[in-house]
Amino acid sequence: LGAVQTFREWIEQQPHIRCQTNTRWLLRYLRTAKYSQLVARQKLSGFLGCKSEFPKWYNDIDTTDPAIQAVYDTGYVVPLPGTDPEGRKILLGKEGALDPHSKVYNVNTVIRAVFAVMYHMLDDENVQVNGFIYMTDMSNFSLKHQTFWGMDGMKNSTKCFEGNMPARFKGFYCYNH
Fold first, then answer.
1. In the chain, which ranges are continuous DSSP H helix?
2. Distance CA 58, CA 50 (A)
3. What is the C-alpha to C-alpha distance for residues 146 and 103, in angstroms, rounded to an integer?
4. What are the 10-residue block averages of pLDDT along the chain, 177 residues in total?
5. Rounded to two decimals, what is the model's pTM?
C-alpha cells in the first residue's frame, strides 16, 4: 500500500488534477503500470486529458439510455464469459454489427457504450492484473461502417485507448479482415 499512498500524495500535490483517490481507483493505474509511479502518473494524466478533451465520451454514462442499449443489442461489444488460459478476459467487437445509418445511436454513443463495458471489466482485479484480449470480427464490415466512424472518430478514440486507458491490453486479434 506504500505505492498507493505515494501515488495519492502526488495527486493531492497537483493542483490541476481532480480525480478519485481511493485505493481501488489508484490500483487500476498502478497495476497497469506495474507499480511504476512515473508510468502510472502518465497514464492518469493521459486519461484525465482525454476525459477533459472528450467529455461527451466519459461523463455521466447511463447504460440504461435507450441509445446505449441499442448499441448493446447489436452485439457490437461483448465481454465473453470466463477467461483464456492465461487468465485474461476476452472482449469481442463485431465491427459489422453496427448500423451505419442508425437514427438511434452515433459514434459518441458507441464509444460511451464501449467505455461502460471496459470500466465494468476494469472493476475486476483479475482484469487489472492479467489484462484482456480484444478480438475483432470484421464480418459484414463495409465502407459505410468506415465512414460512420470518420477520421476524427477513429483518430480520437485511438488516442483515448492507446496508453491512456488504465488497462492492460495483452492482444489484439482480427478475424475476417
1. 2-12, 23-32, 37-53, 55-58, 66-74, 107-122, 125-130, 143-161
2. 9
3. 17
4. 94 94 94 94 94 91 96 96 95 95 95 93 91 94 90 87 86 88
5. 0.89
